[in-house]
Amino acid sequence: VIATMRNVAKSAALAAAAGPALGRTLEVKQLDVCDEASIRACLDSIPGRHVDVLVSNAGVGMVGPLECQSLAAMQSLMDTNFFGLVRLVKEVLPDMKRRRSGHIVVISSVMGLQGIVFNDVYAASKFAVEGFCESL
Fold first, then answer.
1. Model confidence pLDDT, tens digit, residues 31-75
2. Domain spanning 56-135 has what CATH number?
3. Which GO MF terms does the UniProt record name (predicted)?
């Protein structure tokens, strides 16, 4: 099992929870879903780039009235929540198709099905995730 984090310097809590599994059945690797080179480097470090199950859980939130949010912050949120997932799937899907096996599990949000006031941009990112996954 490989757990990935954008910043492995923050892995202390994960290491503590993993206990003796860390280094035996669990590895922690660096992966930033907003960086294609980071994704490729992580996958290239896996023998044969063989991924049986991808669990995509990367995401950021945004709460507040739309007029208080900067366009740059909104783009950053979409880059992580939606395009980050797209980048990951684009990297693992060809091998899964070739092998005719593998699973992709996406952690989304109820806000991908129903918007909530002051969560408009976050909900939009999760609606995008839902539409992307349904279309795959």
1. 999 999 999 999 999 999 999 999 999 999 999 999 999 999 999
2. 3.40.50.720
3. oxidoreductase activity
Residue 128 near residue 78 (C-beta atoms within 8 A)? yes
Instruction: Say how many CA atoms lie within 13 Å of 3 toward its Cβ.
Output: 19
Cα–Cα dist 40/80, whole Å: 16
- Name 103's bridge partners: 53
Cβ–Cβ under 8 Å, residues 133 and 106: yes
Task: Indicate which residue of 39, 122, 124, 125 is catalytic.
Answer: 122
66 CB burial (10 A radius; 0-12, 13-18, 19+) = exposed
Residue 56 has a CB neighbour count (10 Å cut-off) of: 20
Query: Is residue 23 flagged as an active site residue?
Result: no
| 15-27 per-position pLDDT tens digit | 999 999 999 999 9
Domain boundaries, the chain: 56-135
pTM score over 0.70 = yes
At residue 83's C-alpha, the angle toward residues 82 and 88, to 5°, is 105
